Amino acid sequence: MDHLFVTGTDTGIGKTQVSCALLHALRRQRPRAVGMKPLASGCELTSSGWQNSDAVALRQASNPVPVYADVNPYALPAPLAPEIAAREAGVSVDLQVIRRAFLRLQATGSSVVVEGVGGWAAPLSPSLDQMDLVRELNLSVVMVVGLRLGCINHARLTAQAIAADGGRLVGWVANEVDPEMARRDENFELLKLRLLAPCWGRLPYLPDASAEQLAAFLNPVS
């Protein structure tokens, strides 16, 4: 199993939820899998420094449990687009800082699941796009499709953008983020027809389910 980069068709479609479930699903196949969120905005100040709830969730879903700073090298306070949050915090995002943290996670003998920010085209900094990170770390891409109105268009455009940038889309996951969506099953079947990568699963709308419970709905393809 390659190391993975989890991107999405938009922000707010459950990338962290899927990433945590994916970590548990991978751990069914091998004992070691750890999560990483290189950049996170909207962090809270704790006794251990600035921390982000998504990065904390990824860390908790990991085995072995890594140090927080390796999971989330850039914890940005403001709940803004990362490029803006970094500028506001006076932080310059360095790809090599992220690479060194990734290598420390990789050195534990683990599969590494790296969660991106927002959608695929959201920049990391004025000079860095998410594809730069994917290329530097040699990651395969998994796309999270939020099942809601417009998802077919967003999924196809995102898949096309990943391919155009030279990314390897190895799978996608449907996430039921809108319990009121009409014709969910039909939309899901249309996505399966039009996306070339295999579907790794479909997460039902279960807001109180744990990542370990949601992992039962996923089947990562080796």
Automatic annotation (TrEMBL):
Reactions catalysed, as given in the entry: (7R,8S)-7,8-diammoniononanoate + CO2 + ATP = (4R,5S)-dethiobiotin + ADP + phosphate + 3 H(+)
Main location, first listed in the record: cytoplasm
Keywords assigned: ATP-binding, Biotin biosynthesis, Cytoplasm, Ligase, Magnesium, Metal-binding, Nucleotide-binding
Protein name (record): ATP-dependent dethiobiotin synthetase BioD
Cofactor: Mg(2+)
PANTHER family tied to this protein: DETHIOBIOTIN SYNTHETASE
Assigned GO CC terms: cytosol
Annotated catalytic residues: 37
Root EC class: ligase
EC number(s) given by UniProt: 6.3.3.3
Top-level taxonomy: Bacteria, Pseudomonadati, Pseudomonadota, Gammaproteobacteria, Lysobacterales
Alphabetical GO biological process terms: biotin biosynthetic process
Pathway recorded for this protein: Cofactor biosynthesis; biotin biosynthesis; biotin from 7,8-diaminononanoate: step 1/2
Family: Belongs to the dethiobiotin synthetase family.
